[in-house]
Specification:
With 114 residues, chain A is mainly β. Chain A is built from no helices and twelve strands. Classes of the chains: A mainly beta (114), B mainly beta (112).
Chain lengths: 114, 112
């Protein structure tokens, strides 16, 4: 069965420092992987995805993610964090079909301190 | 281009009542997915509609149902509301070769 794990409930980082939000996955076949961000009382905003191709994926707001097949990971990164990046981040994998539901991790709360 | 819209923003009901939530995907997107985000339970898949047909449903009781209209908008109905149905209900649209679901702002359902 497809699944993703986000091992950290919360990540704290100082503004200007690099940030990493971790995600590992377990899938049958080739993974379709996604990152979404959720601000308080809001829906999910799409950040980036990996379907195929380059292992380093660039997305919105300066975020990027690295697909690592051997470690089954898809960590979200940003070189320099902003206070406005503070939000809830979800990693997701597509169900067994590429048109199927998204299966979400439990979410990681990112707190960026000034 | 308008994003995914959902209505109402908030909905307050009492136990046993019925709730109807609505979603309009981005123009050109023909699939609609519904998810429940309940406190402590994360994001759970509810239903998937494509071209007017229900394609898949999550592990929810039959009192959760819905439909998709010819204009691809969708409705989620929850009958016989229970306290634990209180949650943020998110819909997402998808279409074409994007492989990406785009979410609306959600409907906050509170069951008293």
């Amino acid at each position: 069965a497809q699944s993703v794990a986000q091992p950290e409930d919360q990540v704290n980082v100082a503004e200007g420092n690099p940030l990493t939000v971790k995600c590992t996955y377990s899938v049958s076949g080739n993974p379709y992987l996604f990152w979404y961000v959720q601000y308080p009382n809001r829906g999910l905003q799409f950040l980036l995805k990996y379907i195929t191709g380059d292992n380093l994926v660039k997305g919105s707001y300066g975020f990027e993610a690295e697909f690592n097949k051997s470690q089954t990971s898809f960590h979200l990164k940003k070189p320099s964090a902003l206070v406005s990046d503070s939000a809830l981040y979800f990693c997701a994998v597509r169900g067994i079909y590429n048109t199927d539901k998204l299966i979400f991790g439990t979410g990681t709360r990112l707190q960026v301190f000034p | 281009e308008a994003g995914v819209t959902q209505s109402p923003t908030h909905l307050i009901k009492t136990r046993g009542q019925q709730a109807t939530l609505r979603c309009s995907p981005i123009s050109g997107h023909t699939s609609v997915y519904w998810y429940q985000q309940a406190l402590g339970l994360g994001l759970q898949f509810l239903l998937w509609y494509d071209e007017g047909e229900e394609r898949n449903r999550g592990n929810f009781p039959p009192r959760f149902s819905g439909r998709q209209f010819p204009n691809y908008s969708s409705e989620l109905n929850v009958n016989a509301l229970e306290l634990e149905d209180s949650a943020l209900y998110l819909c997402a649209g998808e279409g074409g070769p994007t492989d990406t679901q785009y979410f609306g702002p959600g409907t906050r359902l509170t069951v008293l």
